[in-house]
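Exercise 3.2. Students should predict the tertiary structure of the chain below and write it as structure tokens, then compare their answer with the key that follows.

Predict this chain's 3D structure.
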Amino acid sequence: MLRPNLFLVIAVLVSVVQFCPCGEAYSESATEREKSSAKKPMPWDLGPGDVDISGYPPEMQSNYEVFAEKCSGCHTLARPLNAPYATPEEWNTYVNKMMRKPGSGIDKAKAKQIFKFLVYDSKKRKLADPDAWERHIEKLISEFQKKYGKK
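Answer key:
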């Protein structure tokens, strides 16, 4: 009498495992959901999508390449390049958040390179003239509101 019940329990468990959010199929759809979410426009996407790194030290140029490869997989490069983040603390939080996203492909070594580039670039382009940077951010927000009608 227990045999049919045991069979039923096993069948239910197998079906639960197949559709469980912890399964491989879910990971792929979670990755796709993250990438789709990252494609939603943000004000920072309206800024320039590249930066002249020719005057940056070789290590930062190399780090830029890692940044460009990994970060462009989910969203525009304009997003982080024009984001209002500028301090090491802000970039540490942001890069760690991106590293944990499904499908990011950002391991600790790559995250460190991306972090170093973003901190260096922010120091050169954002923190060097904070008033100009603030005007740039305000302009992007204004353009975004005109284009999308939201903040």
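Discussion points: The CA atoms of residues 110 and 131 lie 31 Å apart. The chain has two domains: 1-38, 40-148.
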